[in-house]
Inverse folding.
């Protein structure tokens, strides 16, 4: 199938106080048209930097890489042209519904802005369009909400408004950076359901960023697991949940609370993510890995296809290492 | 809304009552006796007492205050001890000059302050930012009377394009307004810049950028408007400084306004004149504050219901 987004060898570093922070360090991500693709990883793994770089919302150049959106390298586009894509063909919703809306403007204004900017709608047309969008995301009493200000709405309602804003340009790609993390569980499920329906109905691809494996299971066709600025495993959701390969992924899956299994304590991966400015030889996960071998702390493993359609970046699956350990 | 205004205007009563009390007693606490001044240095004690009686300064202070308040309620601020004319009409004749000067300096402050602040915030640490912030540092550091004298030196003495003083024509107000407004414009520029930079980093500005809006929409509609709350607070506060600054500015530029009137009244211990002028200044200050609060509501819907 055709790809809507192709990120190749993307590197985005930050420089602060003489230190280099390789927030995103040479990642490849593909999103096929119509798919919902997840990026999972703990806090600080570089998920938001990846998504903001894709929208070109982070100041400064990238170190390396290309981002093909609809077969155009958007990293080379002049800002003016990028503006016609942003909010239109490629839209984004953020983690913080409480602060992502402008407190001084009506909902009507904030949704309508998109269609007025990108489609040249009049005020009246924009209003009708905004009303349609509010109905689309299932907001009760939409006519009234249009006239209201963000502070009059709950977190869940605000996130629905954010989704309306994102859908206003009928985007080909929707980047959702932890869209439900700040919301309570029931609202979370409703919003995810809504996103899934929109994706199907409007054939919108979604790049869904989350640290919640449960959300991935619910939503995604394909998953990238990110650790410390790198992709450590990627495959279809089905593969990932049936046979996770990377010890980090396995740890993430074990830490999902389950209802049926008898659990005394919730599992959590030992240790904590490395400081982003630490220079680590070898695999960045090695210090926390229960299966770490000698080589792991010396050389970083390559990202390899170890089963058809299943890629991981781990020495456990390298032929040489398997032989050494006598695994076959 | 109307309720709010009425309530605030009612608050005006205790505020002004307080102002009259403080002002009445403080001016009398300053050493110096107007009766003595008027009667002259060689006057006998009897003559001085006679003058005091004429001026209505007999009896206990409390009795005098009650008389003064009673007069005020009837719209009578008393007569100037110096000229014998009604204080109210003297103040009203000086007021236009001061209002015009304050108004002009507010315009100077807003125009220079906002332009410098917004331009600086658009490209922090650029050359234009450095230039404006350097200017702001100067503006804040230089005393008003010194700025006035330097401006007179440049524009009146060397270039000879503007008058050194007076208040009869529009061009008389140019140098005083710049003199008075400069420091405030510097403060406003700095605060505009810092609040713009703070707002630019807010999530909703990121949302605005993610919508693909043009940069002037992002700067003015989304950022500046939110910064306005701070900006208006600063303007309101600076209004007080400007009003106070008229005293110096009017003296430097020999303008016949309320500021200079107050100075002369204090020097002469002209009690009714001092009390009357300060009452006017207090009313102006309270009204401006009310205006500022009303403006908040019109900008920020979150403040509207209260
Ligand atoms: N503007 C910046 N300047 C310097 N460092 C940054 C900047 N933005 C992000 N980083 C660093 O890059 C790393 C990746 O951050 P990022 O926000 O992408 O993590 P994340 O995976 O989205 O985490 P979370 O789940 O907490 O949202 C972090 O270590 C962060 O400190
Ligand atoms: Mg994040």
């Amino acid at each position: 199938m055709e790809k809507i987004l192709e990120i190749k060898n993307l590197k985005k570093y930050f420089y602060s106080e003489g230190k280099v922070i390789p927030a995103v360090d040479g990642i490849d991500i593909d999103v096929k048209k119509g798919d919902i693709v997840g990026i999972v990883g703990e806090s600080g793994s570089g998920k938001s930097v990846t998504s903001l770089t894709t929208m070109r919302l982070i100041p400064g150049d990238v170190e390396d890489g290309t981002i093909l959106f609809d077969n155009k390298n958007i990293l080379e586009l002049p800002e003016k042209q990028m503006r016609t894509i942003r909010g239109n063909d490629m839209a984004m919703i953020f983690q913080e519904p409480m602060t992502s809306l402008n407190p001084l403007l009506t909902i009507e204004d904030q949704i309508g802005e998109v269609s007025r900017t990108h489609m040249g709608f009049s005020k009246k047309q924009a209003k009708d369009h905004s009303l349609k969008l509010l109905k689309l995301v299932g907001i009760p009493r939409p006519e009234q909400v249009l006239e209201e200000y963000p502070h009059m709405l709950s977190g869940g309602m605000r996130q629905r408004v954010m989704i309306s804003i994102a859908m206003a340009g009928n985007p080909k790609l929707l980047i959702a950076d932890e869209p439900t993390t700040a919301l309570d569980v029931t609202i979370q499920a409703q919003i995810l359901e809504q996103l899934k329906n929109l994706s199907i109905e409007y054939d919108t691809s979604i790049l869904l960023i989350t640290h919640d494996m449960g959300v991935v299971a619910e939503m995604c066709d394909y998953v990238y697991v990110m650790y410390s600025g790198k992709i450590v495993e990627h495959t279809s959701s089905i593969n990932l949940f049936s046979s996770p390969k990377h010890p980090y992924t396995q740890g993430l899956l074990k830490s999902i609370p389950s209802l049926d299994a008898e659990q005394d304590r919730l599992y959590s991966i030992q240790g904590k993510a490395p400081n982003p400015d630490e220079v680590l030889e070898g695999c960045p996960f090695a210090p926390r890995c229960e299966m770490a071998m000698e080589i792991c702390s010396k050389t970083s493993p390559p990202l390899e296809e170890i089963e058809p359609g299943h890629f991981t970046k781990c020495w456990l699956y390298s032929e040489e290492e398997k032989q050494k350990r006598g695994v076959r | 809304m109307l309720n709010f205004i009425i309530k605030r205007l009612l608050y005006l009563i205790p505020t002004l009552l307080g102002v009259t009390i403080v002002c009445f007693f403080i001016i009398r606490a300053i050493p110096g006796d107007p009766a003595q001044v008027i009667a002259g240095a060689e006057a006998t004690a009897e003559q001085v007492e006679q003058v005091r009686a004429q001026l209505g300064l007999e009896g206990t202070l409390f009795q005098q205050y009650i008389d003064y308040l009673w007069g005020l309620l009837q719209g009578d601020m008393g007569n100037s001890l110096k000229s014998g004319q009604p204080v109210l009409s003297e103040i009203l004749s000086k007021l236009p000059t001061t209002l015009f000067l304050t108004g002009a300096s507010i315009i100077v402050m807003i125009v220079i302050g906002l332009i410098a602040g917004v331009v600086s915030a658009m490209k922090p640490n650029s050359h234009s930012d450095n230039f404006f912030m350097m200017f702001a540092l100067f503006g804040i550091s230089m005393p008003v009377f010194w700025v006035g004298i330097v401006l007179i030196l440049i524009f009146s003495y060397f270039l000879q394009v503007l008058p050194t003083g007076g208040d009869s024509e529009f061009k008389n107000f140019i140098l005083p307004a710049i003199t008075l407004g400069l420091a405030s414009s510097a403060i406003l520029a700095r605060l505009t810049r810092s609040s713009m930079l703070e707002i630019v980093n807010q999530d909703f500005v990121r949302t605005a950028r993610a919508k693909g809006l043009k940069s002037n929409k992002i700067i003015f509609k989304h950022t500046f408007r939110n910064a306005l709350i701070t900006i208006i607070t600063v303007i309101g506060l600076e209004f007080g400084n400007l009003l106070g600054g008229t005293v110096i500015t009017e003296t430097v530029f020999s303008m016949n306004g309320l500021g200079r009137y107050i100075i002369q009244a204090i020097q002469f211990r002209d009690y009714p004149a001092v009390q009357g002028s300060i009452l006017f200044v207090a009313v102006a200050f309270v009204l401006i504050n009310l205006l500022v609060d009303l403006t908040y509501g019109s900008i920020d819907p979150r403040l509207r219901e209260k």
Notes: The mean pLDDT of chain A is 91. Residues 185-202 of chain A form the longest helix (18 residues). Chain A is about 30% helix and 25% strand. Chain A touches chain B at residues 55, 57, 82-88, 91-92, 94, 96, 99-105, 113-114, 117-118, 149, 151, 162, 165, 169 (CB under 8 Å).
